Amino acid sequence: MPGLKYRDGIASNIKPEQIIQTVSEYFNITIKDLLGTCREHPICEARHIAMWIIRKYCKKGTIFIGKLFKKDHTTVCHACQQVKNKMETEDSFRNDMNNIFNQLP
After folding, report:
1. Where are the domains of the chain?
2. CA gyration radius for the chain?
3. How do residues 55-83 score in pLDDT, each as one tens digit?
4. Measured between alpha carbons, how far is 51 from 78 in angstroms, rounded to an integer?
């Protein structure tokens, strides 16, 4: 991704729960909201980001992530595609992603 400064090798040390915690803190939303059913844009976007990071860096499949978030695996696929598209087109979104990566343990 152009301009994205994520760290390779995050997956070896990080757990999905740590990603969920970091994303919820970054966006100042509760973990309950992040894992819940709320469809408000800021919460959905944070949820999509958490799903994408877990998929990419924890090497977890869409079925696992779907169970974690109580969503269908196709919802996870859609969320990951949305994040990928936004990273390719929106500078402010890439900045948010970089900030989240910098906060990951």
Report:
1. 13-103
2. 12
3. 998 889 999 999 999 999 999 999 999 99
4. 10
Please say whether the beta carbons of 91 and 97 come within 8 A.
Answer: no
Query: Do residues 35 and 25 make contact, with C-beta atoms less than 8 angstroms apart?
Result: no
* Domain at 13-103, CATH homologous superfamily: DnaA protein, C-terminal DNA-binding domain (1.10.1750.10)
Place of tokens 């729960």: 17
Q: Please classify residue 30 by burial: count the beta carbons closer than 10 Å to its beta carbon, then call 0-12 exposed, 13-18 middle and 19+ buried.
A: exposed
Rounded Cα distance between 10 and 12, Å, is 6
Distance between CA atoms of 45 and 14, rounded to whole angstroms?
A: 21
Residue of 10, 34, 37 lying closest to 23 (CA atoms): 34
Structure tokens at 40: 């408000």
pLDDT for res 57: 87
